[in-house]
Amino acid sequence: MPPQPDGRLRIAIDGPAGAGKSTVAKEVARRLGISYLDTGAMYRAAAWLALRFGIGLTDADSIANLLEQKPPRFTCDHDGNMEVYWSGERITEVLRTPEVSEAVSALSAHPRIRQILTSWQSEYGDEHDVVMDGRDIGTVVLPNAEVKVFLTADLKERAARRANELTRKGLTTSTEEMALAIEKRDAHDTGRTIAPLRQAPDAHRIDSTGRSVEEVVDSILSLVPWEYSS
Ligand code: DC
After folding, report:
1. Segment 182-227, tens digit of pLDDT
2. Nearest alpha carbon, ligand 1 atom 1
3. Which residue, judged by its Cα, is nearest atom 4 of ligand 1?
4. Residue of 93, 108, 115, 136 with the most ligand 1 atoms within 8 Å of its CB, for mutation
5. Distance in angstroms (rounded) separating the CA atoms of residues 143 and 141
6. Is residue 230 exposed (0-12), middle (13-18) or buried (19+ Cβ within 10 Å)?
7. Which residue of 58, 109, 114, 205 is most buried, as measured by CB atoms within 10 A?
8. The pLDDT of residue 176
9. Distance CA 192, CA 113 (A)
10. Strand partners, 35
């Protein structure tokens, strides 16, 4: 896609859970010196708020009201780091717990919650050069992104990566348990009516199975039009 009139560089990375999107997106952002926005963390923050205040996951209006009245704060630097705060409390890590992962998919199917988060994400993309990862970035949030990638990997490898990630954080889970949880979440994300997980027609499909982070990052960087290279 040729550069847009605003001259911004937006890179959309979508794909199923555990495909390596956030690791790769962070590194692409770091190498280019632009922001990284993990949109999954925004949905996770909404789920965390629901759990924190004991709001039922089907009570989308109460969750949406809370999001609007007291929004979480998302900060991005130019080194691929993103932090999430709510009411002064840093919640970046707690968003990755299995409880939040279990809750987030059901909640992310609600139209009002999607509408609020999607508008924050699109606004961010209007104002910043950014690598954004999620499920609907290339299809809904940044339909005019200069680079679109759909990142996949086989289920076994995705489950092993997520299980290792949790083990490193001191939480125990097996690859088998993780594979079941991931499959369930993918089915939810792909099957919902609003903004389902889909490959955008103009996205480049990259399979990260058996490939190093470096290799995948290089493949994505090779898609960035030369006009944006410094
Ligand atoms: O990328 P992640 O695993 O942190 O995402 C958590 C959940 O959030 C995922 O199951 C679906 C939802 N999500 C979404 O619906 N749309 C996005 N753009 C990003 C995440």
Report:
1. 999 899 999 989 999 999 999 999 999 999 999 999 999 999 988 8
2. 40
3. 40
4. 108
5. 6
6. exposed
7. 114
8. 93
9. 14
10. 130
Q: What is the pLDDT of residues 116-136, one digit of tens each?
A: 999 999 999 999 999 999 999
Q: What angle do CA 24, 120, 10 make, to 5 degrees?
A: 40
Q: What is the pTM of this model?
A: 0.92
Structure tokens at 111: 């139209």
| Residue from 117, 145, 155, 130 nearest 15 by CA | 155
Name the residue with the closest Cα to ligand 1, atom 15. Answer: 108
- What is the C-alpha separation between 37 and 133, in angstroms, rounded? 7
> What phi, psi does 147 have (nearest 5°)?
-135, 130
